[in-house]
Amino acid sequence: MNMDLTQRIQHYYKSMSKGQKIIAEYILTHYDKAAFMTASKLGHTVGVSESTVVRFALILGYEGYPKLQRALQELIRNKLTTVQRMELSEGMESSNILESVLKKDMNNIRMSIEELDKKAFQDVVESIFEAKNVYILGLRSSSVLAQFLGYYLNYALDNIKVVTSGVSDIFDQMARIGPKDLLICISFPRYATRALEGLKFAKQNEAQTVAITDSQLSPLKEHADICLTAHSDMASYVDSLVAPLSLLNALVVAVANRKKGDLTSHFSNLEAIWNQYGVYMGKDYTLDE
Q: Are the CB atoms for 60 and 9 separated by under 8 Å?
């Protein structure tokens, strides 16, 4: 069924029971809260049983409540303000924060693995090697991801250009992008408007485009030749970048494996420079007393 959650609710509303209609009305009115409720909590909130909530998911065509919940999260995730994110995390007990956040990050990686598109990943690696110049665009919280990817790719390649907020506007930094170039645009909810504009700009200039984002529903996908996804479900106002960072790690390793011989020689030269100028602490380093 090629309909989003609100369309499904509207389509099946007349055939719903009284209790299911109550759930539907609550979701449409309070989607920002319902998206992160368990079936039990949603049922308790609207005054119906947990089984009624499960049957509500089934009547909409979902395999179960978790699938409905995921659809609702995908539908509204970019509409959540920072204040709403904070409100959603208020129920998290302080004593369980560490364990809860680590488990959420682990789940993000697990879900990213399950939805991994290996062909798309290999296509991105090939595109990096075929490009005249590789532009890496990331803004706001995604700027750290762009900097990370650019930092490590720079060791293997000499055509990497990181585009992010700074003295120059992103369009100044991308002014020369063209048909033989590649733009890797990284953006996760809440998606930066300027990042999407940069992606469109690259596309208009006939550059190849890659989107690294959270799902196939991301607004970046429409303007990308290749789309790689990694889950980034948030905890509080903090964007979870663990799975995205792991995906970028994999890209770096794939590129490094292809450049292994050159990198070995390059790092041998770098080690001599680092030792000469004391870039890293040596084995004989001691703290002054």
A: yes
Q: Is 135 helix (H, G, I), strand (E, B) or coil?
A: strand
pLDDT tens-digit profile of 165-217? 877 899 999 999 999 999 999 999 888 999 999 999 999 999 999 999 988 77
Angstrom distance (rounded) from CA 136 to CA 7:
36
If DSSP codes are grouped into helix, strand and coil, which group holds residue 46? helix
> Do residues 157 and 255 touch, judged by C-beta distance below 8 A?
yes
pTM of the complete model: 0.73
Q: Please, what are the domains in the chain?
A: 5-79 (1.10.10.10), 113-274 (3.40.50.10490)
Let me know: does 65 contact 58? Beta carbons within 8 Å.
no
Contact assessment for residue 209 and residue 203, using Cβ atoms and an 8 Å cutoff: yes
Task: Determine contact, residues 175/159, Cβ cutoff 8 Å.
Answer: no
Residues 6+ positions from 130 with CB-CB distance below 8 Å: 182
The distance from CA 70 to its chain's CA centroid, rounded to whole angstroms, is 15
Alpha-helical regions (H) of the chain: 5-12, 18-29, 31-34, 39-46, 50-59, 65-76, 82-88, 97-114, 118-130, 143-156, 170-173, 193-204, 242-258, 260-276
Give the three-state DSSP class for 212: strand
Cα torsion angle, 15, 75, 214, 211, sign: positive
In the numeric block, which tokens belong to residue 102? 């680590």
Residue 168 structure tokens: 């120059």
Query: SS in 3 state form for 81-101?
Result: CHHHHHHHCCCCCHHHHHHHH
Long-range contacts of 63-70 (CB under 8 A, 24+ apart): 65/39, 68/5, 69/35, 69/36, 69/37
Q: How far apart are CA 30 and CA 87, in angstroms?
A: 13
| DSSP structure class, residue 227 | E
